[in-house]
Amino acid sequence: NAGVTQTPKFQVLKTGQSMTLQCAQDMNHNSMYWYRQDPGMGLRLIYYSASEGTTDKGEVPNGYNVSRLNKREFSLRLESAAPSQTSVYFCASSDRQANTEAFFGQGTRLTVV
Amino acid sequence: AQSVTQPDIHITVSEGASLELRCNYSYGATPYLFWYVQSPGQGLQLLLKYFSGDTLVQGIKGFEAEFKRSQSSFNLRKPSVHWSDAAEYFCAVASYSSASKIIFGSGTRLSIRP
Lengths: 113, 114
Prior knowledge:
The complex is a heterodimer.
Chain A: E1 4-7, E2 10-13, E3 19-25, E4 31-38, E5 42-49, E6 56-57, E7 64-68, E8 74-78, E9 87-94, E10 103-104, E11 108-112
Parallel strand pairs in A: 2-11
Antiparallel strand pairs in A: 1-3, 3-8, 4-5, 4-9, 5-6, 7-8, 9-10, 9-11
Chain B: E1 3-5, E2 10-14, E3 19-21, E4 24-26, E5 32-38, E6 45-50, E7 56-58, E8 64-68, E9 73-78, E10 87-95, E11 101-104, E12 108-113
Parallel strand pairs in B: 2-12
Antiparallel strand pairs in B: 1-4, 3-9, 5-6, 5-10, 7-8, 8-9, 10-11, 10-12
């Protein structure tokens, strides 16, 4: 039972490069989330998708875009990476109707140089 | 808008001592509340959750939390900590009534004194 799978696990980018972080869940959850974790700041919500076909901005959306490709997949794109986007990124999913908690992937450690 | 405050950035307790980690939330409707734990270099594990009913919630690893609506608090407690409890602890609030948003606090790092 894979749960929430994120790829890649590690990535180094140069300033200005673009990349997409992939996330897939196999729990048939309708809601998915992207967070970034920085020391002393906890997890901050970047974007979320309450259901397939919808996305909304979270607390820190600037510099990011997302795509809810289907019910399983929710990708996060950095169009022009900046050093301030160096962080650990977590994808999560939950089932609002079933009142579940958020289930997390193992994270992607991104360094922008 | 939802928000979560964890006022203690870092707490150190002796092994075997009791523990209380504070969490205050701001949310207009009935909140769904969670406590997660993260060990160094690891992902997040759910300790316990509150959706409704009994305001004292039992979780894994001997943790419990009490929802106090009048104080907008959801403090985490453990009667006797173990060295393996050293980790970072996050409180979170969800708004499942509308947009399904889950907001986390900034975390409390717990150190255990031998």
